Amino acid sequence: MPISPGEVSYITGAASGIGRALATSLVNQGGLVIIADLNGEAGSKFAAELNDKAGSVVAISVKTNTTIWEDQLAGFQEAVRTFKRIDYVFANAGIAERPWLPPFDPETAASRPLLKPDLATADINLTGQLYTAALALQTFERQEIGPSGFRGKLILTASVFGYFPSRAMPLYAASKAGIINFMRSTAQYYAGKNITINSVAPNLVDTPIAPEVLFIPFRERKLLSDIQLVLDQFEKLLGESTLNGQALSVKADNAWVHPADTHMLEENLPACDLISVEIFKLFGDKTA
Ligand SMILES: NC(=O)c1ccc[n+]([C@@H]2O[C@H](COP(=O)([O-])OP(=O)(O)OC[C@H]3O[C@@H](n4cnc5c(N)ncnc54)[C@H](O)[C@@H]3O)[C@@H](O)[C@H]2O)c1
């Protein structure tokens, strides 16, 4: 659904790739954007380009490391100071897999100390997005219903590896699966509160997330996802759209809604429902 002119979008990781394409598309529709990126230089340059083209301030850049709460808090505060409200938050910043452990090798294993894993992939792709979500939901909660009929909409960029395991990318898959089930869980909680939470989950898209050489065999086999089709999925979740708790997925030129796992759900539902009731009682939450 189209956005209303003047609606404000906060996008992490918007200096490059999917976030950058999304910011461009939103500004072209009359929106205002906050570019929250670790690469402050690229973010500022991009914001200046958008402003020059529009002839007014349609974009601001905030240098943000999404894994640092204080950075993200400052970014949200700056966004609200400048544009008064935030209609859409895109928790999008992410990185490709970084090896968390050395390659399996029983020959050399005993000569290495037991190493602390590198959890950077999970820190950025899971914790960073959760910080963005926490700020988005609290910002939406304290603002009135906006021009499209909502307090706000949160969209988290996941991946098809949120559903499918990957032997080469265990932390990426774990983070994206975490995002998908976080999205479905919070979508249940915020349903009926004029807030929607959804995910867009592409397969491989040609962006600077990985070295160019990685994309060559995918390009040859036509396995890269069409970035316009990815943008179309984001757009389905905006404006007056009432979609909530959905994972909109893309592979090459195919788009689909990925269903939630319902295997054995009926058998588990009584206990799952009761645990929610009891936990809300324990936490003193009367809204649920
Ligand atoms: N490109 C793909 O194949 C693909 C497929 C599925 C999902 N995704 C997801 O899409 C999202 C965007 O990826 P992309 O392909 O556009 O990548 P990209 O590398 O082009 O852009 C990512 C941006 O995020 C920023 N960033 C990285 N770490 C950050 C941090 N800690 N704080 C703030 N900004 C940070 C980078 O500076 C960069 O500008 C990611 O969540 C990624 O996992 C990408």
Automatic annotation (TrEMBL):
Q: Offer an example of a GO molecular function term for this protein.
A: oxidoreductase activity, acting on the CH-OH group of donors, NAD or NADP as acceptor
Decide whether keyword NADP is in the record: yes
- Determine the domain of life of the protein's source: Eukaryota
Q: Does the keyword Oxidoreductase apply?
A: yes
**Family classification:** Belongs to the short-chain dehydrogenases/reductases (SDR) family.
The record's listing under PANTHER family reads: 15-HYDROXYPROSTAGLANDIN DEHYDROGENASE [NAD(+)]
The protein's name in its UniProt record: NAD-P-binding protein
- Give the organism the record lists: Mycena maculata
